[in-house]
Amino acid sequence: MSSKARIIGVRLGVIAIGLLLTSTFIGGAAAADLKIGFTLSLTGGTDDYGKAARMGAELALQEYNDKGGYKGQKVEAVIYDDETKPAKGVENVTRLITRDKVFAIVGPVNSGVALAIIDIAQKNQIPLMDTIATAEQVIERYQKAPKNYIFRVSLNDGIQTSIMLDYINARKYQRIGLMHDSTGWGQSGRDTALRLLKEANLNLVAGPEVFDQNDSDMTAQLTKMQEGKADFIIAYSLAPAAVQIAKSMQKIGLKTPWTGTWGLIAPNFLKLGGKELIEGVMAVTSYTPDHSANAKALHDKVEWVFKDQGGDFHPVATAQTYDGVRLVLRALDRVGPDPQKIRDALEETDDFTEAVTKMKPHPFSSQTHESLGRDTGFLAVWHNGKLEHAE
Amino acid sequence: MGTFLVKLWQAMVSGLSIGSIYALIAEGYYITFVTTGALNFGQGEFLMIGALFGLTCYVSFGLPYAVAVVAVVLLTAAMGIGLERVAIRPVMRHALSLSWVLSTVAISIILKNAAVQLWGPEQIKFPSPFGEAVVLVGSAGIFPQELFIIAAALGTVFAVQLFLRRSLLGKALIAVAYNRNAAAVMGINVTRMVVLAFVLSSALAGLGGILIAPITFAWAYMGTTPGIKAFAAAIFGGLENPIGILIGGLVIGLLEQVFGIINSNLKEGVTFLFILVVLAISPTGLMGRREITKV
Cα(B143)–Cα(B136) distance, rounded to whole angstroms? Predict the structure, then answer.
């Protein structure tokens, strides 16, 4: 069925139902709406990401609608909270597709939720734009399908270590220390790091040292770094344990530069550690407010528009979602509200020059649905409570 | 000092501070065990409530730290009354009943869920009243809070012992522990003494929470590990010997940190292996009463 026929069909159906309800008006209005759906963690452990993502989404939509929307018609956001629970995410996506009839879905935040919902989007042929979740399988699962409906504007877990290694090579660090938490995520990070360090011919002089993510004292592990005379430390750690690393470094007077993964760009890290403690700590990112003019413009807008919601409190989550939603809207402009055509248009887009992340103008192709990779990620450094591009 | 000695000293101070928290909670196990034969397996969650309620008093309400500590002790003491009434008294009617294991675990799960509702699931920073600057003690960097924990926890353990040995109320409690029926005959209100035991035990855990939170953060799931480690300390030291328990708590805290110097992968495994060996040699713990069976 062509999209026009589909829309007419939907309209007729809705009108029929409307007649049954003796209210044609409500039914007719619903069919005319253009909706983009969201499932985000607005409560639960990762609500900071969800709330920041929502700001990016709202800003992108507001700008699009202010310019006239799609052929004069405004696009409406339908935003559901998945509470960071996979089951709730499944419920949300099902509702977005069957009841709200959205033309695309953006989200979620949590990788566990993502892995639970992508099957539904793929099966129903609705493009899903993941702007936060980092698990590699989110994109890999349907990479070999004839048409992959899942796209990402976020750095996947696997690529983050390469970005650290590029930084280490560029700054000519020679003696690397490695630490990781004892979770599955921490161990897989360790394995990737060991492999890449070997490939790059870099010396691992200390570690891998392991810690529990609830440990409150890391002096034993850090003393190993000190004794090995590491000149750069890689740590796979979530924000709470990373704060303990920074505290324990103070205890033993260790001042070696060190980086964590994407987790340490979160506002939680700043809140738990305080800006003095985390000064100089680095993290992998695709965005800092100071890396380009576009980035700066977004940061200023978010600070102003959302100042009652804490301003640009989680810049990366906001920026990636802002880019992701704008890519979907650009595809809508080109091909109309047909989910399958939007999917194709997302792969074809090659003139997205206004990205605020380091994304290239041709972010997706039939070969890859990862818009951010090794050459578009970089290290950010905490300076005075703000994220900056690491020198 | 040689580098190894510096490391050892650093590990010992950190170990002593966490170990004294284990000891504080474990003394709570001791008090209720000797009076009723039951333990509160939710001690760790009482610690968590102490930390989070302390956070609300100290940070949200802006009360002085000392006032927050008193408020925490009062709240957790009151919760001890509730615990005894809801989870202990109804299930202890039968002398051999083990239902208190389940009922105290049930309370701990309820507390954890309630805490997630009230304070959320994430770690929250608890600023130390003594500042965040490191002080050097013999070339080891220590947070003032850690020194305060050691002093406050050990001071409290000794104060409780003094109370039990010297005051009339304390002596009554010990009398109940020694012989329940005889104590009742002597006119001691056994039921009240049992309540008192749970009040003391809960308040000790609550105090532990507000002491440790500036080091570990405050959060709904913070209590589980200290609860288990303190239980290990109590068994390891000898459940009926308060001095053994104190030593047990400190030893477990120390061992974890000291083994950490050698190999961070194995520190908890080796610590618990050590406990197994000690228990194999001395089944009632380091300083537990020897059971002598005459045939």
Answer: 9
Domains of chain A: 33-155+294-374 (3.40.50.2300), 158-285 (3.40.50.2300)
Kindly report, residue by residue over B20-37, the tens digit of the pLDDT: 999 999 988 888 888 888
- Residue B265: in which H helix or E strand, if any? none
Tell me yes or no: is domain B3-281 CATH 1.10.3470.
yes
Task: Give chain B's largest Cα–Cα span.
Answer: 64
Extract the tokens encoding B248.
């047990």
Q: How far is A82 from chain B (nearest CA, A)?
A: 15
pLDDT of residue A20 exceeding 90, the answer is no
A89: distance to nearest CA of chain B, Å? 19
Identify the pLDDT of residue A8.
57
User: What value of ipTM does the predicted structure carry?
Assistant: 0.83
**Beta strands, E only, chain B:** 135-137, 140-142
212-271 in chain B: CB under 8 A from chain A: 215-217, 222, 225, 257, 260-261, 264-265, 267-268
Residues 228-257 of A with CB under 8 A from B: 239-240, 243, 247, 250-253
DSSP A70: B
φ, ψ at A38 (rounded to 5°): -135, 135
Confidence class of residue B95 from pLDDT cuts 50, 70 and 90?
Answer: low
Alpha helix ranges (H) inside chain A:
3-20, 24-32, 47-66, 86-98, 111-124, 137-140, 157-170, 184-199, 219-227, 239-252, 267-273, 293-305, 315-335, 339-348
**Three-state DSSP class for residue B211:** helix
For residues A183 and A252, what is the distance between their CA atoms, to the nearest angstrom? 26
What would the mean pLDDT of A300-323 be, rounded to a whole number?
91
pLDDT at B292 over 80: no
Tell me whether residues B225 and A216 touch, CB distance under 8 A: no
CB interface of A with B, residues 182-211, below 8 Å: 209-211
Judged against a pLDDT cut of 90, whether residue A11 lies above it is answered with no
Tell which residue, B96, B265, B23, B102, has the closest CA to residue A215.
Answer: B265
Cα–Cα separations (whole angstroms), residue B31 to A344, B46, B55, B290: 70, 15, 27, 19
Q: Which sequence spans correspond to the domains of chain B?
A: 3-281
0.90 exceeded by the pTM? no
